[in-house]
Amino acid sequence: MMVIVAANVGVIGILVIGVPLHIILKRHKVRSVLPYILIGFSTAFGFVFLLKPFGNDRLIDLFQQASIIGAIGSISASVFWYVTVKLDKPNQQRLGDAKQTARQR
Length: 105
What we know:
Elements: H1 2-27, H2 34-51, H3 59-86, H4 89-104
């Protein structure tokens, strides 16, 4: 049950929060994975505390659920970062090479 909720939270989180924040971080030339991990964890953690998708549980149970979902959010954010930032580095180098070649002409 938790995995299904986590997957849904991840998809919604990526579309609603992840992509817009990625665009902002990209504009500010942030290439580190840490902001992505922190955003992924805090978004998922906050989701569980605000919406209580597993029911109205005790605080300690809610904290445990939020921590697990937050960890999954961090992993999702790390994969998102790897695909969108880390793997994009060769493309950035090619664009830089193309700009440099254009300037030399």
